[in-house]
Each structure stands twice: as structure tokens, then as C-alpha cells.
Design a protein that fits this description.
By secondary structure, this protein is α/β, with parallel strands linked by helices. The chain has helices at residues 44-47, 72-85, 98-109, 144-155, 159-164, 185-194, 209-212, 214-225; strands at 3-9, 12-19, 26-30, 52-56, 91-96, 114-120, 171-176, 198-202.
Length: 249
């Protein structure tokens, strides 16, 4: 069962979905740019068999506040405030794309708060060719001003972000989407090399790995996170032809 909740963090309301046994170890999920907590719905039920899963709507997204003040560092510190508000001392942390940037910034700044880190198709923080995004038509489920602010940072990252990767103490798995992804796969490999306990696995599914190949993705995550307990966690029940409309990367 999934509960929809919210918490006040420094005057910002953060919405989140929580599932799994209350006594289970915590796993925090951070979504990509323009997505939200529900983007993890295809894989969260399997993860919730062994973890207490917390999937956030980051600021400017979904049911969380759209305060007009945006940066990846603010999102990073929102995660800290979220953990403190829920009295979560140490967590496993997983982020996709933009959420992965927030995750590695958090793990580098607050290393003792993260046990294990999963980065799903996350770019290495190096400058890249800039482009101007086009606003989609219609009502959005995220603040367009947030997109513009965050994209500027991703295109021209702070040089200190690259150095901060060496401060991450968590065992880290970088999941690469292969040649179908727009993210530089060489950059993902470099990111993993710069993290002291980092390694890479490639799932050739494009950028949206956990939606395009949920079964393979969850298998890799379960193998890496090594769920606690006397016996192995129940394996994923997702199938490639499970009828869930998975997007292509």
C-alpha cells in the first residue's frame, strides 16, 4: 500500500509517497527533471518488499511547493531536511538523471547519511553544449522556471561538483543506459571511477531504464543493495511483457 504524505522542510512543503514495512531500512528515491514520485511506481512495489521506500516530489515538481527559488543545491538540502524531519539517520539513496545529480551532491556533502548510492543514467558534472528548452503546451506538472534554472546548472556545472565525487563514501552503482541514451556513457564511466567505491553496470535500454526494462533494472538493484535479513529478498515479479506501458529512452 502506498501512502501519500507531505512534510514541511524549511518552509517548503515536500510531498512524497511511502510504502513498505515501517520497520524496514529506508530507501529514498529521487526522480528526473519534470517527473515526480509516481515515476517510480513500476519498480517501487518490488523494492518495498525489503525497504521502507520514500519517493519524493522534489521542489518545483508535482504536489510539492513551487517556490520560484531553484537550484540543485537547494534540492540537495531539501533532501537533508526531509531526512531530518523523518528522523532518518542513514539511508540507501537512488536517483535518476537530475535526481541522480541531487543524490551525488548529497552523498558528497553529507557522506555519513548514505549507506549505498544508485545513480541511474546520471551525467558526469562536466560542461556540455547549451541549448534552450521549449516549453511544452498545456498545463504542466512542474514549474517551468525550475526547468530553466536547473538546466543551466547541468549545462555548466560548478567545477567543485567533479571534485566532490571523491568525498562520497557510500558503495555506489552507476547504471548506464547504453548507446540509446543521450547521456554520455563515457561520462558515466568517469563518474563511477571518481567515486572511491563506484562501479558501473550497463542496461541497454536508453535513458529511462527503470521504465523501459524494469525487471532487469530491479534485478541489478537488488543484487547491489543486498537486502538485509536471514534469506534473500523476494525476486522481482515484473516481466518485459507485463502490460505496463514502458517508455523508450
Amino acid at each position: 500500500m502506498v501512502d501519500h504524505r507531505s512534510v514541511d522542510v524549511g518552509g517548503i512543503r515536500l510531498a512524497y509517497q511511502v510504502s513498505g514495512p515501517p520497520e524496514a531500512p529506508p530507501l529514498v528515491l529521487l526522480h528526473a527533471l519534470g517527473e515526480g514520485a509516481a515515476d517510480w511506481d513500476v519498480v517501487a512495489p518490488v523494492l518495498a518488499r525489503s525497504w521502507r521506500v520514500h519517493a519524493l516530489d522534489l521542489r518545483g515538481h508535482g504536489r510539492s511547493d513551487w517556490p520560484g527559488d531553484y537550484s540543485l543545491q537547494l534540492m540537495r538540502d531539501d533532501v537533508l531536511g526531509f531526512l531530518d524531519a523523518l528522523a532518518l539517520d542513514r539511508v540507501d539513496l537512488m536517483g535518476h538523471s537530475m535526481g541522480g545529480i541531487v543524490a551525488y551532491l548529497f552523498a558528497g556533502e553529507y557522506p555519513r547519511r548514505v549507506d549505498r548510492l544508485v545513480l541511474e543514467d546520471v551525467p558526469v558534472p562536466r560542461p556540455r553544449e547549451q541549448s534552450t528548452p521549449i516549453r511544452p503546451d498545456g498545463k504542466l506538472t512542474f514549474d517551468w522556471e525550475m526547468v530553466l534554472a536547473v538546466k543551466r546548472q547541468i549545462d555548466t556545472p560548478d567545477p567543485e561538483w567533479l571534485e566532490s565525487l571523491s568525498k562520497i563514501t557510500a558503495d555506489t552503482l552507476a547504471v548506464a543506459g547504453g548507446p540509446g541514451s543521450h547521456v554520455s556513457q563515457e561520462g558515466i564511466a568517469e563518474l563511477a571511477r571518481r567515486v572511491p567505491q563506484g562501479r558501473v553496470v550497463t542496461i541497454p535500454a536508453g535513458h529511462l531504464i527503470h521504465n523501459a526494462q524494469p525487471t532487469v533494472f530491479v534485478e541489478e538493484i537488488l543484487n547491489f543493495l543486498q537486502p538485509p535479513g536471514d534469506g534473500p529478498a523476494a525476486g522481482p515479479s515484473l516481466q518485459a511483457d507485463d502490460g505496463v506501458p514502458h517508455r523508450n529512452g
